[in-house]
Design brief:
By secondary structure, the chain is mainly beta. The protein contains six helices and 22 strands. It folds into two domains: 233 residues, no CATH class; 114 residues. 14% of the residues lie in helices and 41% in strands. A hairpin with a 5-residue loop joins strand 12 and strand 13.
Amino acid sequence: MKWIIAIASAGIAAAVWAMPAAAQSGSDTCSDILRNGTLQTTQIQDNRYFQQIRASREQRTRRRTEDVETSADVGIPIEGVPFNASGTGNYRTTNASTSDTSRFDWISEDREFSALLSSGDPTIVSAWSRCMDNGPGGLTARFVVHSAKEALLLISWRPGRVGNPTTGFPDAHLRDNIVLPAGVTVMSGQHCLLASNRITEGTCEVNLQLDSATRTLAVSLNTDRGVGAHAYLPQRLRHAVSSRPHIFSASDNAYRSLFREQHTVTVTHTAQLSEALTNEGWRFDPESIGFDVRKTSGGPHHRCHSPLVTDKQAYQITYQYRARTSFEDRDDRNTRLKCLGTPTARLVRDRWIAMD
């Protein structure tokens, strides 16, 4: 008796498996329906994995450390029904091993189909099912996600056309037992994974409990009919952007004092985001950055003016203003000018967190 080991991943490295040529089935043919073609827009009913696919596609084209504004389309024509998802979002594409990027298991192109199918979106599932019913038949396998740590593996046999030398039969048996890795617990349906189990036109359900939302799972199944199927369960994560006001410290303020000097000076200062905040994934939101200056003391003709932000970066801001003294009267000559420049900004953080 042979045993096939399913592969799971809880880190950045993606789980990989090889599908024998004999194991190819109508499932692979129907996956092309979800993968290629010219697209228009229809209603999206469940987009839980479109975010991951958008980010994965972006990551494949940008492998350098920078903040980018992502605008991407995920297009899938489904059995003649155009279907796509468009969206924008700030994704930090980087090779650095931060706490969040290292958790993300990028979805490869050949796994996009399984990821979309596991979303359970009715449009995708029904179109794929119709394709399988109208095609050569064979073994099918797909995941259905119930929560971040719960999923179903659905295994079924579709007889196909009578007379087909591989699928024209009412049932099939798995060629090998399927052994799931550590971190994945079978709550019910263990018999579905055994070679002794007879797979019929109905669906055999395997109820799975996973140890974390980042646990991925890849399974490959072969039958005694010479055809097989594979399925991939992506991480149950969603992209979340949070924002909050930043509280600047006193050292971030631009202070300048002038006394009995009749001239104008330009005051320049830089505020740096703390290492603790950057390590938590926070960065400055460039659209929210502001700077103001006021005179805290001085003669009637002394001025603190022309505040300007000269450089906006993810982790530091540079700003300046002008301070001008005057000797127009006694109060000006005998009063010290004091200027205080204060920056304002919000912090943003985008992370991959467990689905609800």
